[in-house]
Design brief:
9 helices; single chain; mainly alpha
C-alpha cells in the first residue's frame, strides 16, 4: 500500500473507530446506560425521524418493538444526529453544521470538527488518497479534537499507535467497504431531508 493510500486508511481508522467511540462516550455521559435505550428513543421518534435514512430508522425504531442495542450498532453519522438534536449541547459560536472558529474549543465545536473531516473523506472524497501535508494537518485536528472531547490518555495511546501500526490490503478493503456504505447512507439522508424540506415549504 502506497503512502497516500495508507494516509487515507489511517484517517478512516481514526474517524470510524476512535471518533465513533468518543461520540458514543459523550452520549453515554449525558444519558448513562440503562437496561434498554428503547424506551428512551421511542418518545423522540418524531424529532429524529427526518434526519435518519431507512436503515438507520430500522435500527433505532424497529417495526417489531423498540431499540434493544447498546449504541455500538450506531455509526458516527447517527451518533452525530443524536448529539446535535437531543443532548442539549450548546452549539458552537458559528452554529451547528458550520466550521467553528479555531479559538472555539467547546464540546460542540470539536464535535463539528470531527463531522467536517468525516464528511470530507467519506462523502466528498474523489479518491482514496491523502497527500502527506494534508494528512498531517487533518490528523492533528482530529487528534486534538478527540483528546479534548474524551479527556482520556488511553485515547492518546490508541491514536498515536495508529500512526505506526502496519497496514495490509485487508485493512484497505475493510475501510473502503465501510466508507462506501456510509456514502450510500449519506445520499439517502440528503434525499430525505430535501423531501422533508419540500413538504414544509410547499
Amino acid at each position: 500500500m502506497d503512502v497516500e493510500k495508507a494516509n487515507y486508511v489511517r484517517i478512516q481508522q481514526l474517524l470510524l473507530d476512535i471518533g465513533t467511540s468518543v461520540y458514543r462516550k459523550i452520549f453515554k455521559n449525558r444519558f448513562p446506560p440503562v437496561s434498554s435505550y428503547g424506551n428512551f428513543f421511542e418518545p423522540l421518534r418524531n424529532k429524529l425521524w427526518a434526519y435518519l435514512n431507512e436503515s438507520q430508522r430500522g435500527i433505532l425504531f424497529p417495526s417489531n418493538g423498540t431499540y434493544g442495542g447498546d449504541l455500538t450498532d450506531l455509526d458516527i453519522s447517527v451518533l452525530y444526529v443524536l448529539l446535535r438534536n437531543i443532548c442539549y449541547i450548546a452549539p458552537p459560536s458559528t452554529g451547528w453544521g458550520k466550521e467553528p472558529y479555531d479559538s472555539d474549543r467547546s464540546i460542540a465545536a470539536n464535535i463539528e470538527r470531527i463531522r467536517i473531516i468525516r464528511n470530507k473523506y467519506v462523502s466528498h472524497t474523489p479518491c482514496p488518497k491523502i497527500r502527506d501535508c494534508e494528512f498531517k494537518k487533518e490528523w492533528e485536528i482530529l487528534r486534538t479534537s478527540i483528546l479534548e472531547l474524551s479527556g482520556e490518555k488511553t485515547y492518546q495511546t490508541q491514536i498515536d499507535k495508529l500512526l505506526t501500526t502496519s497496514l495490509d490490503p485487508e485493512s484497505e478493503k475493510i475501510y473502503k467497504s465501510a466508507v462506501e456504505s456510509m456514502c450510500k447512507n449519506e445520499r439517502s439522508v440528503k434525499q430525505l431531508l430535501q423531501l422533508f424540506e419540500g413538504i414544509i415549504l410547499y
